[in-house]
Write a structure and sequence with these properties.
two-stranded parallel ribbon, 5 helices
Length: about 130
């Protein structure tokens, strides 16, 4: 027997608002790996810095700490990351920084085309026509 799912929206205007302001999209492991590589191709970073950057650069996207750590573990297992400590004046202990090693750059750059296309396809939301 098939059941109908009840709408959580009270009226059609609520549904229109949903499309104007959709809920955040969570990155899966493959997309998280691409995000991390994109960031590390530009600058070294630390894990929570990657999360802050995603929030700043793409507020419509989210990345859970669990998936981020899985992505970092994957890249580590692939031998793509180097780690070093960096002292920050505002912190008591040094930050564990991530660096994309030089042997991994070419592989990472090959993923940037598909990653950028995914971003364009999923983040460029067409505007809804104004209600008349």
């Amino acid at each position: 027997m098939q059941t109908r799912r009840k709408l959580t929206r009270a009226c059609l205007a609520d549904i229109e608002r949903y499309f104007r302001q959709p809920p955040p999209r969570f990155l899966d492991l493959e997309l998280a790996v691409c995000w991390v590589l994109d960031c590390l191709l530009q600058n070294d970073s630390y894990p929570s810095g990657l999360l802050h950057r995603l929030e700043h650069d793409h507020p419509e996207l989210r990345l859970s700490e669990t998936v981020l750590h899985q992505a970092l573990s994957f890249l580590d297992d692939q031998g793509m990351l180097d780690h070093y400590s960096k002292r920050c004046p505002s912190r008591g202990r040094p930050r564990s920084m991530l660096h994309l090693n030089s042997e991994a750059r070419e592989s990472a750059e090959r993923l940037m085309g598909p990653w950028q296309r995914w971003l364009m396809d999923h983040l460029c939301q067409p505007q809804l026509p104004a209600a008349t």
